[in-house]
Amino acid sequence: MNEWNTRCKSFILLSLVRSFALSLFFFCTTFAQSRTEGIGPANSYYPVHNFQDDFQVYDEATKAYVPYIVEQHADQTALSTYIDLESNRHYSLLISTRKDGYLFINAALKRKLRAGQWTVLSIDSLFRVYRQPEIFLTLYGAPGLVDKNLFIGYPKSATQRPVVLRDDNLSVRPRPVSMYTNFLGLGLLFLLATHAFLFAFHRRAFLRFYSPRDFFSLRAQEESFLINRPLSSTNVLFVLNLSFVVAYLIIFIQSRQLDVVVSRRLFNEQSLLYILQEFFVLGVIAFIVLMGKYVALEVIGGLYKLQSSINLHFFKVLQSSMLFYTILTLFLVVIAYNTGTMSWSEHILIIPLLIFYAARLAFLYIVIRSQEPIKNLYLFSYLCIVELIPLIIGLRFAL
């Protein structure tokens, strides 16, 4: 009897082990197939996230969205979910329905979904359009969850090759050189040439603009040719030079894999000529923004009756910007060329910018307050409009 019990136990244990092994085999096989086959059109995308368990439906009784439950909501034709755009940048949104349906984003109809066809949407494009960290997406069509497929995917590389181990572990290959490397050197030479030109032909103005002692001086020379004529050819040349410094700094930060703009499509790193073209385009944009600021100062200053301090304000803005951006650019370039393995983060740029603009706002308040008998509330409102609010908006769109 004991021998019979022992055999039964051994048989049951062996059966359990075989069942577990077969289950593990089929699970691994299925998982491997799903990973290798891919999803989307022509199975050309890797699945990052499947929204099958994230759908919600609108409940009339509670007047709110509730999680989708098959037993209760099998006849629902509209399934909704939230899409996190900010955390899934550079990925794609893949949508497919077995029957014709419709796609709604934030309760607005966007397109018709053809049966059996994949719709691919770039999450970067959605982020640029809606300017929101997440969107509310609704799929309307045939009832049930089986009809609808919603994924976040990443495209497979067309040049991807399997990794093959070889005996020769040591191989000598040329180090890949980024197109930015050539541009950063040429850009520094260009900025050196422009600064040398300004120093040679406009030495007096150069020494005035790049003088920290003159910047911190509260006794401004109102009759100075730089302050009294803000749109003179000399001032315009220095503004243009500052614009190219800002453009160089933007491309330098972008070369460190930090997104200065929302999408990296502006910086495709196609060729050196393409990057040079972007450099001059960014320089022209920065020049237009700086000159447009003087127009804004004239308009806002007229409303607050500060006409006598507008030119001084604009001069101090240019003077501080030239000192700060030139020093910041040289500092970052020296760090980059001496620490090749350094890990760059957004704080390297954001923290100095916030400190600089906050300090400049306080300094401009002191300078203008010493020149104008105006109420503190008016002056603070004026500075917030022309200095603080553009900074907040610029950081919001840049980050």
TrEMBL record:
InterPro entries: DUF4271. The chain crosses the membrane at residues 179-201, 236-254, 274-296, 317-337, 349-368, 377-398. Residues 1-32 form the signal peptide. Keywords: Membrane, Signal, Transmembrane, Transmembrane helix. This is DUF4271 domain-containing protein. It comes from Spirosoma terrae.
